Amino acid sequence: MVVFPQFGVGSGQYPLRRRRSQRTVKNQMADGTVWKLADSAGAVIEWELPMAGLTDAERVALESFFTQVEGRLGTFTFLDPVDNLLARSEEFGASDWVKDPLLQLTSGIAGPFGGASGTRLVNSGQISQSIQQTIAAPGWFTYCTSVYLRSDSPVAVVVQRATVQVPSSWQRVSVRDQLVNTNATMTFALQLPPGAVVEIFGFQAEAQAEVSDYKRTTTFGGVYSTTRFMDDRLVWTAEGPNNHSTELRTISRVRG
Fold this sequence. Notes:
The protein is 5% helix and 45% strand. The protein is built from one helix and 18 strands. Strands 1, 4, 5, 16, 17 and 18 form a six-stranded antiparallel beta sheet that branches. Strands 6-9-14-11-12 form a five-stranded antiparallel beta sheet, with no helix packed on it. A five-stranded antiparallel beta sheet has the order 7-8-15-10-13, with no helix packed on it.
């Protein structure tokens, strides 16, 4: 998997800029009638990433990656740093989510921000049951997983590999996780013990160590597998010993 590298806590991509551009196809007929249609295949997202505070090793890694994809020529997977990586973040009955057979879902439950946005999970089996989503993202990255939870009865669930106590009122819990493997996919899961009844809302995954504001997603999450650089060279500034900065511009087509 060719993927934009993840850097340490001391290096930053913020404040970044993200711009989405749409395209409209226009066709003028012989009688003067003009037909206009949105061209979803022509929509793109651009990112401007100020990479600051890079160490010598991180600069070498970024330069090696830039050389590997040959500047603007090659494509790579890019994990949007300001989006939720998971699709259908509130639609747990969608095909993006895989649930174990004894886990029952009921949507339309009162959510944490009003409305019927919550989902009730009931484990009717005698063993633990899970709901999970797998995305095309590297297994060796550090991720932060978060989800809103509540339950009428005291119960502990497993978010990724961490056991968390479910509160009686809506509360967002987050877990930092790093598997350190070479898999080209990453799975984000919630596991319920036998007999548990838990209400959930807003599952989110981010390629960083700490949680950020919740972002609702629909058809797609923030994983872009055909991203390119917009420049053919890197311009560096040495801020001091072992401290480098540059600005990157990347672009990807919008799916859908």
